[in-house]
Amino acid sequence: MRIKQLMLENFRPFCGRHTIDLSVEKSRPVILIKALNDVGKTSLFKAIQFCLYGSKATGEKAFRHVNRTACTQNDGRTSVKLIFDHEEKLYEITRFVEFKKSPPGSFPDVSDEVLEVRVDGIPEKLESIKEQNIYIEAILPEDASQFFLFDGEDIQKYTRHPPGERVKEAIEMVLGIRELLNAREDIEDISRDLGRELDDLLVERSKHAQEAVAVENLGNDITQIRNKIAELGDRIKQAEENVRSCDETLKKHTAIQAKIESRKQAEHNRDLLREQIKANENKIRDFNRHLGVILVAPLLLELSRLGRKTVPHWKRAAISAVLQSDFCICDRPIDQSTRERFERILDRNLGVSSLQYLGDQATELLFDTQPEALEKNLYEILAQRRDLESNLVLQEQTISDLDKEIGGREDLADDIKAAADTRRRAAVDLQQYIVEKQAKEMDLETKNSEYGRRQAKLAEQFTDKDIESKKAHLRSSEACETAVKEAIDELVDKSKQRVAELASKVFLELTNAPRLYQGIEITNEYELKIKTIGGTTRPVWDQSPSAGQSQIIATAYIAALNRYTAREAPVIIDTPIGRLDPIHKRNLIEYYPEIGPQVIILYQPSELSSEDIEPIEKCIASEWLLERDPSNPDASIFRRVKGR
Amino acid sequence: MSQTENSAPLDENFMVRTAYPDVYQELWQKKKLFKNQIHLFTAALAIGVLYNAHSQKKPHQDIVRIGTLSEEHKENIDVINILSQVVYVGPDKRARGAAILSYADGGLEIIWKEYQAQGMLDIPRIVEEAKKKWPDRIPELSHVFKGPS
């Protein structure tokens, strides 16, 4: 990376647009920028940090970078643009924020930061902050930038104990060790992944074994279920047999019970008939009172008939009275023939008065008793008796027949109830077994399906080849990791040694007492140690060096790191001289052209005089003066004082 | 109706008797074929007259005095009275009474014989037989029927 131009727009003290040409040549790598304090040296330094890494790298919020004059005039934009060569391409990186006009004395509202990148004039599409950061880190990592953009007075921190983790990582990055460490971490990750995969395979194998046992258990379960189903089938058959047997018993008992009931009914009918017969006997007995009159009815009829033929007493008395006179009742004289006829009537009935009497008695008796009706009634009673006796015989026969069928059994109601209870229980058992069997069959179907599926899966070849292969990979990876680790250790050692050599060389060039020192050593923790001529090696911080000596040591260290690193970047030094004594100052100034291919030195007039600069005059590409704008005391401007 | 000496009813003091009290016991009391002994006596008398059956045995066992019978038995008393006039014509009441008792026990003998033979009294058959027999028997009783021919 070699900066060609820096363009500022409303950035801190720089109101409006300003461009500074920072291009160098190989023989003239140095650019000097002189400025009084509080004119803008540090702002220039921060502009480069802002452009590459954003406001967070400057330690200040974006709105603080907005030029105070510009923001009171209008809405506008604060931007920094760097144009540089890198890996034979021309990069244009612009970072800006837009601000709103704000009243004097207040900070403006600003937009989010925007980064635009063009490579050889073609915009790069960097949509996310992460993409942008990765892109810039690839050019110059932010952590490494501390060795390229630094405050001369601030670099003493590298001599202090102990160096922070961030510094340590930055050193490793600059030395290229970070990449190797990253590679090692990657290999470690690969090994870890392979280990995990191997573990997974081993677990899988273990699971496979467990699954085989589980499938076998499932097979046993299925066998048990089949046995249970068979057992339930037997129970169902037995229960069905029980139900059938109960049904038959119930049928038999019910039939017999029906006969018992019929017998009871027949007995009842028989008893009823017996009572009716008894009543009929009573009727007959009652009727027999009339037997006499019925038996003599023909005689009575004859007596009655004969009695009616006799002349009644009153008639005979009248005839006798008529015969005793000569005149009839009608006063007509009685002739001889009439007298003879009257006498014959009287003669015929002589001695038959008793028959007439009997006839009257018979007639009266017949009238009173009506023998024909009685006889008819008798026949009805007797017919009824015959029917009753016939029915009685029938009922007794029925009872006799039923007795044979019933076989002396008593009432079977209790037996029927017991059989019905047994049947109900058997039916409940049967239903329960059927339901249980159906459930088991469903379970069997499910388990069979699962068994088949799992067995088929088990049947898929599972060999140890995968595990062996994975183990081989893991072994390779671990070997690689070990090799890388060893290489890194060796490289670190060598790098440290090399950096220590370079730093020692620079240090001995820069120090004002080269005779006292043998050089610089770097510990594993990148702690700097000073080796004295006497052979003692002590940490820098332990020697309590002066600020100037610390700056020289740190500069030597940075120079060594810069020289050793594969990265090419401009070295931008703010306040380079500080409190150095003249020897250190001269040594350092003379060393600046060698510190890197592009060295930008921001200094204030008291640090470097014309005489101080003279030794490197021929190495200066351009020299700039940063001063207050005469028309705006709050603004600064650049002015080229030397160079093209 | 007027009565003659020859056709007077039985005296109220007339005692119904039998020579077969055990038969009465059997058919009346034991077998309960008749509700009252006078019923059996009447039927036996009717059969005795019908078949002109006289018992040779002398009745010795009193059954009932006619005069003690209630109105309920009027039918039977009437039959007995009528038959007494049929079987005996004359003024001798004792002879009439004796004739009646003789015919009654004669009839009872027939009944008993029938009963013993059949184990029962076949009333319808007895009635039917009576119906058939009377036409023959009535002429035999001509002394009673001296009426106009």
Question: How is this fold's topology laid out?
Answer:
The complex is a heterodimer of chains A (644) and B (149).
Chain A: E1 2-11, E2 14-21, E3 30-35, H1 41-53, H2 55-58, H3 68-73, E4 76-86, E5 89-99, E6 114-119, E7 122-123, H4 129-139, H5 142-145, E8 149-151, H6 165-174, H7 177-287, H8 291-295, H9 297-309, H10 313-324, H11 336-348, H12 353-369, H13 371-406, H14 413-459, H15 465-510, E9 517-522, E10 528-532, E11 537-539, H16 540-543, H17 547-564, E12 571-574, H18 582-595, E13 599-603, H19 610-613, E14 620-629, E15 632-643
Parallel strand pairs in A: 3-13, 3-14, 8-12, 12-13
Antiparallel strand pairs in A: 1-2, 1-4, 4-5, 5-6, 6-7, 9-10, 10-11, 14-15
Helix pairs in contact in A: 7-13, 7-14, 7-15, 9-12, 10-11, 15-17
Chain B: E1 15-18, H1 21-30, H2 37-50, E2 61-65, H3 74-87, H4 93-118, H5 123-140
Antiparallel strand pairs in B: 1-2
Helix pairs in contact in B: 2-3, 2-4, 3-4
Describe what you observe in this structure.
The complex is a heterodimer of chains A (644) and B (149). Chain A is an alpha/beta fold and 644 residues long. Chain A has a domain at 1-25 and 35-140 and 616-644: Rossmann fold (3-Layer(aba) Sandwich), CATH 3.40.50.300. Chain A has 19 helices and 15 strands. The longest helix of chain A has 111 residues, at 177-287. Chain A starts with a strand and ends with a strand. Chain B has 149 residues and is mainly alpha-helical. Chain B has one domain (15-140). A two-stranded antiparallel ribbon of chain B has the order 1-2. In chain B, helix 3 packs across helix 4 (93-118). The longest helix of chain B is centred in the last third of the chain and has 26 residues, at 93-118. The two termini of chain B are 22 Å apart. The interface between A and B is large, with 44 and 48 residues.
